[in-house]
Amino acid sequence: MQLIRPNRLQRGDTIGVIAPASPVAALCPRRFERGLQELRHLGFKVIVGQHALKRTGHTAGTIEERLDDLHGMFRNLQVKAIIATIGGFNSHQLLENIDFNLIRRNPKILMGYSDITALLAGIYRHTRLVTFMGPAILPQFGEYGGLLEYTKRSFERVLMRAEPIGRIDASQEWTEESLLWDQADDRIRQTRPNAGMKVLKSGTAQGPILAGNMGTLLLLAGTPYFPDVDGVILCLEEDENERPGTIDRFLTQLRQMGIYRKISALIVGRFQSKVGFSPDDSLPSVLSAATKTFDFPILYDADFGHTDPMMVLPNGVQARIDASDLKQPIFEILDTAVH
Fold it and tell me: Is 91 noted as a catalytic residue in this protein?
């Protein structure tokens, strides 16, 4: 199937907000409202899914309710983009009953990260609609003071401009500071200087982007929702609850599935320090062991994942890596993600 690019966002457009997995929006109403206000401040109208503030155990409503919100946003002709409140654990519950024909007939921007990988990857796999790994309502749009500048620039550059996205430079600074939402998140978080992407294996590569959370992407292994990885630049991230051993397990599973024989390059997003990498159990050593018989370029500490700020990554759009200069690797998105 031919790649489907959604229409670009414009000021005044309506953005739909859904909660495909976790009920955190119901638990943090101030943070949630702040995220909606940031969208309005950026010039958009907002529609909240009918069930987005529900709580059914560990999910934001039943499977049927969450699916109804997803379908409703794709049916609603006013809605030009759909953004998830946050991730969670169970957005893959929706995949078996998604109306992919509805989505093909009504292509629009769908964005989130972490557990939302399941929807982004599954929908991309079955419709060829460009989906977007990027900021979510609670963690990024709900930030005190609004979106961090780097995240905002990437949001506008990728989703609001119908032109090739171009070179992705590193942010000047980043943060992993955690403030308790709705209780202590009433100040700007502390940041530290960003050294930029690092090169583990040098080389050059070109291919379509495939971006996602490691564990969530691997939930789709052996299912009809696992995306095609032939020639892709695979962009992987994980949250602060993982450890070096579990990251190693994910990377090993990818090797044993034959993924590394197919991809053209690997970029790994920045991890929080809580993951616990150390000099004798480092990310470079884990990555090197998992990929030791392969020679595709590998970059790590990129501006995406469970730290801020983050870039927006469009699934299916052609990109290029030039990691021949170990001190100044180049990551460039060669095409537009929207039209």
Answer: no
